[in-house]
């Protein structure tokens, strides 16, 4: 997905270079005070590397058990890249905009509501979200539709635990998700030039059986600690066999419904982004191939890390969810 105000811009997956990772990383280091004159200034003078002199986010350590069975042993993308090369258009369309603009994003108090076609609607506070569910670490591949990928150690719990808790009605068939709408905090929601011209709040959806699949995670952390705001604090969805845009960040509501819910990127360009968005090397995006991806790992500017993309991002156990479906039609 490219910035929407440049419709003539043609996306090439090779545009996503190590330079952009480097630049993003540099901005993180800068923001942490490791680069430039800031490192030499006194505390008072260097306070407020982030916008508007507000304090930067600090991650809290979380307790978890590691799920080896559902984790990949591929090399993990370093923390600095996971947290500085992001898509979170509410904070800007550039890969390093979220880390620059989201540091003072308020996650406490928070309110996450599970409602709709359920017997017991529930609302979770920030503390409920972090404490109510036993956390697992799962190292998943994340494959963005833009043809780059990462390997990320998420902390979270299965979405099916949350949904079961609310007791879905037999008539529920889909799950609709919504990101916080707060233009005061999210510059991209105030200004369409910053937010890429997409309609906010960001919304996503899954079929109920996809939502109940054991791989589908609600994540509250990465690398053993709470999620940084740029990664979707305090809680975001992670669906590892689908393109990254399905993994909606900073979720405030989860609504069970009997109709396929609208999804942000599908609304914007239905021929480019479908409801299903399963990773599929055989179905090209209209403007680029999905046959391979650029794996973002450690390594410098010129490291060669283009790899073949696997169907369902390698999570072949989800194939039974789609038997008898034409995945070129339901892309
Ligand atoms: N609310 C919201 N959720 C979002 C996005 C966004 O712009 N807004 N971007 C999506 C895209 S395109 C990707 S690839 C992943 C990126 O997650 P990460 O930055 O934690 O790697 O978040 C997804 N979730
Ligand atoms: Mo993405």
UniProtKB/TrEMBL annotation:
GO terms for molecular function: metal ion binding; molybdopterin cofactor binding; oxidoreductase activity, acting on a sulfur group of donors, quinone or similar compound as acceptor. Binds 1 Mo-molybdopterin (Mo-MPT) cofactor per subunit. The lineage of its organism: Bacteria, Pseudomonadati, Pseudomonadota, Gammaproteobacteria, Alteromonadales. The keyword Metal-binding applies. Its cofactor is Mo-molybdopterin. SUPFAM superfamilies: Oxidoreductase molybdopterin-binding domain. Keywords: Metal-binding, Molybdenum, Oxidoreductase, Signal. Belongs to the MsrP family. Its EC number is 1.8.5.-. Predicted to be exported by the Tat system. The position of the signal peptide cleavage has not been experimentally proven. Part of the MsrPQ system that repairs oxidized periplasmic proteins containing methionine sulfoxide residues (Met-O), using respiratory chain electrons. Thus protects these proteins from oxidative-stress damage caused by reactive species of oxygen and chlorine generated by the host defense mechanisms. MsrPQ is essential for the maintenance of envelope integrity under bleach stress, rescuing a wide series of structurally unrelated periplasmic proteins from methionine oxidation. This is Protein-methionine-sulfoxide reductase catalytic subunit MsrP. NCBIfam families: PRK05363.1. It is an enzyme of class 1 (oxidoreductase). It comes from the Bacteria. Pfam families: Oxidored_molyb (PF00174). Residues 105-265 form the Oxidoreductase molybdopterin-binding domain. Mo-molybdopterin binds at residues 86, 89-90, 144, 179, 231, 236, 247-249. It catalyses: L-methionyl-[protein] + a quinone + H2O = L-methionyl-(S)-S-oxide-[protein] + a quinol; L-methionyl-[protein] + a quinone + H2O = L-methionyl-(R)-S-oxide-[protein] + a quinol. The gene is msrP. The keyword rRNA-binding does not apply. Heterodimer of a catalytic subunit (MsrP) and a heme-binding subunit (MsrQ). GO terms for biological process: protein repair.
């Amino acid at each position: 997905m490219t910035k929407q105000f440049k419709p003539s811009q043609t996306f090439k997956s090779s545009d996503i270079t190590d330079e952009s990772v480097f630049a993003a990383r540099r901005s993180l280091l800068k923001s942490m005070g490791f680069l430039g004159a800031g490192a030499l200034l006194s505390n008072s003078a260097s306070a407020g590397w982030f916008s508007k002199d507000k304090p930067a986010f600090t991650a809290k350590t979380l307790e978890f058990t590691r799920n080896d069975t559902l984790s990949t042993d591929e090399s993990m993308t370093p923390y600095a890249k996971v947290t500085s090369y992001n898509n979170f258009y509410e904070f800007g369309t550039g890969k390093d905009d979220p880390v620059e603009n989201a540091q003072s994003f308020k996650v406490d108090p928070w309110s996450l509501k599970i409602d709709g076609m359920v017997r017991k609607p529930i609302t979770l506070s920030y503390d409920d979200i972090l404490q109510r569910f036993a956390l697992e670490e799962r190292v998943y591949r994340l494959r963005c539709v833009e043809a780059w990928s990462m390997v990320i150690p998420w902390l979270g719990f299965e979405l099916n635990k949350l949904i079961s808790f609310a007791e879905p009605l037999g008539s529920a068939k889909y799950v609709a998700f919504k990101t916080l709408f707060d233009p005061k905090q999210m510059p991209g929601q105030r200004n369409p030039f910053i937010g890429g011209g997409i309609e906010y709040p960001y919304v996503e959806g899954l079929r109920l059986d996809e939502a109940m699949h054991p791989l589908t995670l609600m994540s509250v952390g990465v690398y053993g600690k709470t999620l940084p705001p740029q990664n979707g604090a305090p809680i975001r969805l992670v669906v590892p066999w689908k393109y990254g845009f399905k993994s909606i960040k900073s979720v405030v509501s989860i609504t069970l419904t009997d109709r396929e819910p609208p999804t942000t990127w599908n609304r914007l360009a239905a021929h480019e982004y479908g409801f299903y968005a399963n990773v599929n090397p055989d179905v090209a995006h209209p403007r680029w191939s999905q046959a391979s991806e650029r794996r973002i790992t450690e390594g410098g500017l010129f490291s060669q890390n283009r790899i073949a993309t696997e169907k369902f991002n390698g999570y072949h156990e989800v194939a039974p969810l789609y038997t008898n479906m034409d995945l070129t039609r339901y892309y």
